[in-house]
Structure prediction request, 898 residues.
Amino acid sequence: MIKFTLNDQEVTSTDDPSTPLLWVVRDTFKLKGSKYGCGAGLCGACTMHVDGQAIRTCVTPVSAVAGKAVTTIEGLGSPDDLHPLQAAWHAHSVPQCGYCQSGQIMSAAALLEQNPNPSAADIDAAMSGNLCRCGCYPRIKQAILSVAADENLAYEAKTRTEVNA
Amino acid sequence: MSTMNLSRRHFLRGSAVAGGGLVIGFSLSGCSSAVIPVENLPGGFTANAFLQITPDNLVRFYCPRDEMGQGITTGLGTLVAEELDVDPYTLDIVFAGVHSDYANPDMMVQATGGSNSLKAHYLPLRQAAANTLSVLLQAAAQDLGVAVQDIRTDAGHVIANGERHPYGQFVATAATLAAPEAAPLKADADFKYIGKTMPRLDSIAKSTGTAEFGIDIDIPGMVHAVVVRSPVAGATLVSVDTTAAEQMPGVHQVVEISSGLAVVADTYWQAKTAAAKLKPNWAEVPLAKVDSETVKADYDDAFATGDGVVEAEQGDLAVGFAQAEQVVDAEYWAPFLAHAPLEPMNAVLKLENGEADLWSGTQGPIGAQGLIERVTGIPAEKIRVHSTYLGGGFGRRGTLTHIVEIAEIAQAVNKPVHLLWSREDDMRHSVYRPASLMRIKAGIDGNGQITAWDAQRAGGNITPTTLRNMVPALLPNMPAGLASWLGDMTDSLFGSWMVDHSSIEGLYEDYDFPNRAVTHYSVDHEFPLTFWRAVGHSYTAFAIESMIDELAEKAGLDPIEFRLQNTRNKPRLHNVIKVAGDAMRNMQPAAGHTLGFASHHSFATDVAEIAEVSIEDGGIRVHKVTCVVDCGIAVNPDVVRAQMESAVMFGLTATLHGKIELQNGAVKESNFHDYPILRMNEAPEVDVIIVDSGTAPTGVGEPGLPPLAPAVANAVYRATGQRLRSLPLQLEA
Prediction:
């Protein structure tokens, strides 16, 4: 049994302790926002935060997060309560197929936590572990820079969501 | 997107709702279901197969095309919103089930590809929405006691006598009225949404992890399956000991299926771990003797036979070469490639009480339905296909071998099944972009006018493998032997008698060649091939646009001038070259950077690209790509820009990194460490210039890709003097 917190809730996993965290979160706890892309820590689609650090959960056994705080894309924000990065992602129409974006946003959020005002080179360094087959890189970079520059995009995008709801 | 509530779902008779002249009514199989699979929204007005409006003013749009990132929900949603006069962001967009009304008008089947979705639906969908609005207005006039011409509309509301009434107020009356078949469409000048930049309709769902992909489907009682296949395509199972795998925790059973062995377990991780215990023996097939080196040598040998099939002949090559002052002869190579969409193949299938529910994101829902029917014998009308978002397509999700697998597994286990391919599975058991060896011999006269164009291509054919997979899917009742025979016939047809146009497209169309011929040499290694973003254009443009620069240099002309004077009969391409050429002349690349140019017509769209390149640490670095595109009316200019950006990145992956290699018939590459995808630190800035020719929309998903590789190669030549004629581009030491 492995106990940890998942998006601020205490959970207990009875999966085999060697099971990667990604599959425990997706299949046991049914949070499907984090994606499988490579199973080898090469693409970043599975990125979550463990104690605030962006990690590749497809190669992290659930045993490694015992007693730690795990945050997934669902814990970062929701359509009705967007994180500023999610709002910026919408304002810049970043996603195409969208499959990699949870991982991209989790990597970006960890970057901004540690470095609220990153340069383009800082962004390249922090984000180059996250693959996007659709090639959304220029927009990802713009969206991160816009949040760092506090363009208040979060507010605009939220207004749009309210219209949707 | 809302998630469909199955318990509330029912099926309307097609004849009752297919008004408004929308019925395409064409089905290759002749047995697609007669009912339109739309939900029964309480009190809702079902105007046609695409649109439903409820009393509380929900406007639901059943999107007939698959969303793989190209932005088609946004594009088609915008068309519907425009004619219906609703805010596009208020649309409730649901992917359509399978029905002939949802066929792609350009393809006659329910499939998505060929960059044709907006082109094909531009008028029919607007018509469907305009007809729907017309009925609503008639209903409003009747209910409010006013004349139709005294009613205005605004954002989902009728405005009459200075009062706003939601459309939903009139749906009960609308349901009793006959819809017109050809209500007038809006004039272009009155467009509110078409032509405007707006954020994508799906970007919030895709930024919050709430967009549902096939891999995310999780239904009660389902088990997870992982399949072990032969490393060499087409080899069948000879023997295996399943004992160790069956004893692993969580494993239910190991099932033999046509493509190999399926391990079925409680969870994916258990199934995957157990699958590693299987060490099957596979039959020997001819492909097992093939290596990458032999592929290329076989293509060379094919050229040497001189026994190709001639296509696109015009004028007289002998005359053209006699008129030539200079002749250039060169050979170009493009390797096999994988699509590698980030979401690997997957599906969920539930078989119960003689009915089936399939959840998957595919580029051909009707093919998925046909394959379930073929394997299980359940009739099509009892097979419901629930399409999800696609985590990338690029042509990969038109081939549905995973649907055959899940149908076979679900039949054996008698439980709902979730099938997931690993990254390695998808890299090694996919269908691939064909490798191509291309030779072009061209002559120019003293004025730099091309007089002769002799293009040759050796390689596998794209269409036969695809047809071999599609025939059983689209004709589910055809006996397996006959379907297989039909597949053999298409192989033979394209091998010896006629040219598979997809395999040579782009090799001769762009320039004014008075004397030309394309000769094709089919070489089949039984390695499975299919459409890959931009299909034949993905490699032919590399050859043709590299050769054009080589010819321009021989002629002593600027590459833009040379292109302009040889495209006088292709006005739209000519104009795009001119616009891009003007932009290029004004560019001031940084010290040590060079510019390369290429243009290409594909999927009815014209694109020119300028790559700014430097050589860093012995490698090629692309700093910026300027892309000029004429795709007619840009329904959402930002989606057009995004597709050009995407094609540049996808093209640059192929230009700098992409190759699938064979060793003893097996694919050597397995994951992103040995099949690298462009990363952010390598991504160039992309500047997109949209030329608005005002004509109806043409393709945008693919046409941005073909010019990229030759634009980079042409820039590298200027930087280094090295003319690189082989992809991926690699500088000589």
Remarks:
- The first helix of chain B runs from residue 14 to 17.
- Chain B has three domains: 14-207, 215-283+345-420, 293-336+434-462+500-720.
- Residues 19 and 48 of chain B are 6 Å apart (CA to CA).
- Confidence is low (pLDDT under 50) at residues 1-33 of chain B.
